[in-house]
Predict the structure of Putative secreted protein (Por secretion system target).
Amino acid sequence: MKKLVLVLIGMYSLVVNAQSFTNYSLNDIGIEALLADLIVDDNNNYWVTSWAVDGTPGIASFDGTTWQTYGPTDGSVGFQHRGVFQSTSGDLYFGLFLDVDAEGFEIFDGTSWTNYTTVDGLAGPDVFNFAEATNGDIWIATNNGLSRFDGTNFVNYGPNEGLTGAPREVLTDASGLTWLATTDGAFTFDGTNFTRFTVTDGLVTNDLFAVHQDQDGNYWFGGFEFDNPGVTRFDGTTFTTFTEVTDAIRKIESDSNGNIYFGGESAGLFIFDGTDFLQLTEADGLSSNRIRGIAENAEGNMVFSTWQGVSVYNPTLGIITLENPDFKIFPNPAVDIVKIQTDNFQVSEFAIYDALGASIKAQKVDKTLTEISLTGLTSGIYLLKFTNSNGKHIIRKIVKE
């Protein structure tokens, strides 16, 4: 099992397990160009966009077994796309990237495609991102301002309304307030007025690409300056910048456990657990260091679109773990029982996973753990995950005969 040593702490070392990634190449997906955004829809299907070449499919979906592509011959009007979004009604929205053949965005209802452009009233031809307002209207971030779409008509916002800069991402927060990451700072919109935040207020830069609200209600902004990288957290009162993120950031998302993922322009992925940052790159199993989309699937795995494919990350197997040379399991291979020997790691819980990361068994431990029964398991490779009372983990691979 390949491991990357990250930090030394006394006799322990922190490692990430490279086997925690499952990758799908561009060839697997059926796309001939660099990937862009990604979502996981309500049915746990993946949808990914791309900067496809002329006449080839620019959108692909994955149902867990098969990839399917969509292009001009399938009804999609363009081939170069940016953002992808699913509304509460189930419709899929795809932003177009100043395509030579099409502009604006298109909606796919599962059967037919509908294209909307500046001719229909959209603010700009290049669409970055979407969000849904509390009343079901769709916010659309374009290169020429913000549009609000009620399914028929557009209302546009720009400098005359108090919004400067090009919106790159729009977010509707838990209270219904609209947030924007733009080329000229961060903005909120309360339905009447825009409020602007800049480096003067504490942002790392005014050149922003991503905005995200975490489970604690904090807002995160990803800067897009290569010579001034970092992310900023806003708790409603104070701005705090984290320079541990050493790349321009295109995407920010949280998982169901509250970990926050920052997709870098060229330096891979940064994960924040509330205390520490972990950086993952191609060396750890990512399909590319250029991250474009981030989403969580129904199994709790994180899915990333990169320039070179889609990477599915199993946090259970990829979690930072303690590599303790004094923690021993034997025999290996084993038949029915595996014994444990350790002097300095008190196990409070253990779990068994199959080679694909599916949970087989989990059990609390209220006394010193000296052995684990493998009875009932079929022959094969398994992962044993041991956790202590401080939440630190050790993972070992075992072969069951």
